[in-house]
Amino acid sequence: MFENWIKAGAVALAITGAGSAQATEEFIVMQSTTSTQNSGLLDHILPAFTAESGIEVRVVAVGTGQAIKNAMNGDGDVLLVHAKAAEEKFVAEGWGVQRFDVMYNDFVLVGPAADPAGIKGGEDVVAAMSMIATAGVPFASRGDDSGTHKAELSHWKSAGVDVAAASGGWYRETGSGMGATLNLAAGMGAYALTDRATWIAFANKGDLEIMVEGDTRLFNQYGVILVNPEKHHGVKAEAGQRFIDWLIGSDGQAAIASYTLDGEQLFFPNAN
Amino acid sequence: MQNFAHEMQVAFALILAGDSELLGIVALSLRVSLFAVLFAALIGMPLGAALAVGRFPGRRALAVLVNALMGLPPVVVGLLVYLMLSRSGPLGVLQLLYTPTAMIIAQVVLVTPIIAALTRQVIEMLDAEYAEQMRSLGLSRLATVPVLLWDGRVALLTALLAGFGRAIAEVGAVIIVGGNINHVTRVMTTTIALETSKGNLALALALGTVLIAIAVTVNAMVSLLGQRAEAQEDVRHA
């Protein structure tokens, strides 16, 4: 009885034309991060794959933490994120089939031109962040369990700073995406950790500048994983794998390398 | 913000030039929200009318609940609908997540209480006015519902508009259940959120202005319809 109602409802909704777009074309859903979308990378590379394969890639861009949880719920066929430890855990627990390196870029520490913590030009991110903490000047954190947030927390840990104690004081957790966090940092003259791609593409920098870059600990690796079809039967394993093969193959890697903004390359392919 | 004027020009130039990308986004916004209001009206109007004229236990409690649900946070609705439609949720087999249908469902949940509560108010007033007359004609309470709904149709347009306003302006629910997928589930509000997160504040604001212009147009059209209906009424009464 209940199932009949669901079916009737589905038919009624189909009549609204709401589902018509996907009827004709094959597509996969990719759970990914705001950095790959906001930087314009995905808009640059995905059309080439769609043209070659006939498979449309529908991107849901959220923080890495949420992307992984959505994928665990089976709400995606492919996962493209940047938090290696969490990705390996995702595969080890059986949610994903296998993890492949795709590309990297790096994080940069940005802050107001006035530089109240006096860290500009440094190359040691941990030392710089410890100076921010000592000076007690505002720092805008993602606070959203994203890849960038995880990276930031690991630096605080290395610096021996207990940010939980400073939360609401000089340490401000926005709980939102990279762009929203940068908007806040620009507005209140705060420091922030951001991936370089989002930073370059970001249009509302205000008087924010790069303070610290080039530390090897600022390396930012992206990985791609096929969601395990044995966990969720709806997963489009074949089309998803085809996309992964393309992304880590020569065509996909070349497409990533060819994406530049203001003359700067944003992502560096490094699939094996 | 010094380039706001420039971004406004860009936004309106895109519209005037019939930029297919932007028109697609506007069309999807309208389609989702209009369908949501339609379904919400089909549920909310009879519900509101029943609450107004019905005499059953728990009626007052239900009316209070409906009023309270007008303040439902969109993010919570988005989350509930997501959990229902997720592949691991009870309705996952329908594969509706990240489709415009999912967005319509979320907006129906948001809009129905508004339409129901406003309908109850309108019908209660009419009922107080005509109750004796109708009963003298031998109509049962429930049988007066369609008559009252028809009589209050002009006032009920306002209820629909309030619902439409809520639906078209909402972002928290549709971004969760729609996923803001380009060319599939990207609507005006999620585009504005995306442009804001890219730091394109002026463009985001310009798109917001376009959204307001659309809302004004829809309201003006409905208001015009209402006036014509009222004018016809007056002719008939004269």
Automatic annotation (TrEMBL), chain A:
It holds the Pfam family PBP_like_2. Residues 20-249 form the PBP domain. SUPFAM superfamilies: Periplasmic binding protein-like II. Coiled coil: none annotated. InterPro entries: ABC-Tungstate_binding, PBP_domain. The keyword DNA-binding does not apply. Residues 1-23 form the signal peptide. Keywords: Signal. This is Substrate-binding domain-containing protein.
Automatic annotation (TrEMBL), chain B:
This is ABC transporter permease. Gene3D superfamilies: MetI-like. Belongs to the binding-protein-dependent transport system permease family. Residues 26-222 form the ABC transmembrane type-1 domain. It comes from the Bacteria. The chain crosses the membrane at residues 34-54, 61-85, 97-118, 154-181, 201-226. Keywords: Membrane, Transmembrane, Transmembrane helix, Transport. It is a multi-pass membrane protein. Pfam families: BPD_transp_1. It is found in: Cell membrane.
